[in-house]
Design brief:
Strand order of the largest sheet: 1-2-13-12-10-11
Number of helices: 22
Bound molecules: glucose-6-phosphate
Helix content: 40-55%
Distance between the termini: 58 Å
Largest sheet: 6 strands, mixed
Structural class: alpha/beta
Radius of gyration: 25 Å
Length: about 550
């Protein structure tokens, strides 16, 4: 089911939104709040264990009505159903998109090609649990009989960012007797630094790669195998120190990993949507099966809400529509995600891939060029650190940067006054952004006339605040699913395919051609442009000089 590009900007709701945006642009959040004293209680929604306050957005009831109408006119409801019912909505790769099956309860039915995939999902989860329990209990021994004390996940992109983020996010729940490291970059330093203080006899490598052909991952996996064999001597050690997460059994076996120790997933799981599949093996090793299952429950609750809640109360739909509102009607180019929870320090990096690899597209499903902006740039840092860095631009810069603040009522490990201070800051930031400080206020404080303009805060800068009781595995699952579905909502409005990533292919292919040109002793004729040729020649010359 596709629409033509032409249609989006011609939809009645889109045209109405354009007109409505004209009117809203000149309305200040101060006015909206003073006109409706209950605004802060009205523009709220709840799902799973998350509470969303979206009152500090530049919206009225009419805005929400129009955005919901836009969602309906774009067929969002039908598209959600197409995903949940296993249709091949990733049309450029002819694949279903069923990450929602990864967290479906054991007795549910999620089918594609006439087959319920849930039993396979749970079979893999059971296999993972069994393995994890053996490692964590010490039953699984390394080649020399030592217990596994270090786990190194080797993967990149979707096979790295989710596991790293989840490990950091759930560190509080993790087994501190096991050291976890993550190697992704083909820059050898990543591997060297990750392993320099580890004993191979106590180290387990998880080679996480859907395809098992990714250049970075395979290069790192080979270096890991060499490192292990240098210290442990025998090839037989590989079976005790390497497991794989992949869809490619043949390549896994060719690498020397026993396919008994391979954890599978399916082509209907996209890389950036895979952290709750077997790609999450390192997460499960860190926090144990029970917490992993609780995380899946959090995902599932969000899935059900997304599928069934009316758009007016549907948190991922609302947040997705608000991001469209700012991107397309306020010319906002970015969205900042600002978690006031240090354990979520890798969450913005994870979201960069989820959002931008998904909707960083400029053709619609039918292949025509879009005539409107698509994915904004997502970025962020944990508060309060960002406040002492880039928040200046968010408060007083020339660009509109909608913010998502994420906060928790309870600290996982309370320390003195820290948590109240942290929370006071997140609340203060959204208040300052929304309401600012007027010329008159600044002046009445006795500020010298020449300094007044520098100290004025315009305000009227929008934000969402997501609040939960505490960062549990379940809450993390809901939070991730929330953003997955925000991305889905955006993709449906913009009529793009959020599930392919053709834009990463060209660079990969060119690198394959350049590798022999850098490594080779003979000098093949260089056939690139003059800039690339010159850089290659310079690299070669300088490499020779040592
Ligand atoms: C994600 C992308 C990409 C992928 C990596 C790793 O959606 O497809 O980031 O996850 O390129 O791929 P492999 O898991 O196949 O090594």
């Amino acid at each position: 089911m596709t629409r033509t590009t032409f249609a989006l900007t011609k939809l009645r709701s889109w045209i109405a939104l354009e007109k409505h945006a004209e009117a809203i642009r000149s309305v200040h959040l101060r006015t909206l709040f003073s006109q409706d004293p209950k605004r802060g209680e009205r523009f709220c929604a709840e799902v799973a264990d998350l509470f969303l306050d979206y009152s500090k957005n530049r919206i009225t009831d009419e805005t929400i009505q129009l955005l919901v109408r836009l969602a309906e006119e774009c067929g969002l409801r039908e598209r959600i159903e197409s995903m949940f019912s296993g249709e091949k909505i990733n049309i450029t790769e002819n694949r279903a998109v069923l990450h929602i099956a990864l967290r479906a309860p054991v007795n549910s039915n999620v089918s594609t090609d006439g087959k319920n995939v849930v039993p396979e999902v749970h079979a893999v989860l059971q296999k993972m649990s069994g393995f994890v329990n053996r490692v964590r209990s010490g039953e699984w021994k390394g080649y020399t009989g030592s217990r596994i004390k270090n786990v190194v996940n080797i993967g990149i992109g979707g096979s790295d960012l989710g596991p790293v983020m989840a490990y950091e996010a759930l560190r509080h729940y993790s087994d501190r007797s096991i050291t976890f490291r993550f190697v992704s970059n083909v820059d050898g330093i990543d591997f060297v630094e990750a392993t320099r203080d580890l004993d191979p006899a106590e180290t387990l490598f998880i080679v996480s790669s859907k395809t098992f052909t990714t250049m970075e991952t395979m290069t790192n996996a080979e270096s890991a195998r060499d490192w292990l064999l240098r210290k442990l001597g025998s090839c037989e050690a590989v079976a005790k120190h390497f497991v794989a997460v992949s869809t490619n059994a043949e390549k896994v076996a060719a690498f020397g990993i026993d396919t008994e120790n391979m954890f599978g997933f399916w082509d209907w799981v996209g890389g950036r949507y895979s952290m709750d599949s077997a790609i999450g093996l390192s997460t499960m090793l860190a926090v144990g099966p029970e917490h992993f299952f609780a995380m899946l429950e959090g995902f599932h609750e969000m899935d059900e809400h997304y599928r069934t809640a009316p758009f007016e109360r549907n948190v991922p739909a609302l947040m997705g529509l608000l991001s469209v509102w700012y991107t397309n009607f306020f010319d906002a180019h970015t969205i900042a995600v600002l978690p006031y929870e240090n354990y979520l320090k890798r969450f913005p990096a994870y979201l960069q891939q989820l959002t931008m690899e998904s909707n960083g597209k400029s053709v619609t499903l039918d292949g025509t060029n879009v005539t409107y902006d698509t994915s904004p740039i997502y970025w962020g840092e944990p508060g309060t650190n960002g406040q002492h860095s880039f928040y200046q631009l968010i408060h007083q810069g020339t660009r509109l940067i909608p913010c998502d603040f994420i906060a928790f009522v309870h600290a996982l490990t309370p320390v003195g006054r820290h948590h109240d201070i942290l929370l006071a800051n997140v609340l203060a930031q959204s208040e300052a952004l929304a309401f600012g400080k007027t010329h008159e206020q600044v002046k009445s404080e006795g500020t010298a006339d020449w300094l007044v303009p520098h100290r004025v805060f315009d305000g009227n800068r929008p934000s969402n605040t997501i609040m939960a009781d505490r960062l549990t595995p379940k809450v993390l699952g809901s939070l991730i699913a929330l953003y997955e579905h925000i991305v889905f909502t955006q993709g449906a409005i913009w009529n793009v395919n959020p599930f392919d990533q053709w834009g990463v292919e060209l660079g990969k292919a060119l690198a394959q051609a350049i590798i022999p040109e850098l490594e080779g002793t003979e000098s093949p004729e260089l056939k690139h442009d003059s800039s690339t040729n010159n850089l290659i020649l310079r690299y070669r010359q300088m490499k020779e000089m040592k």
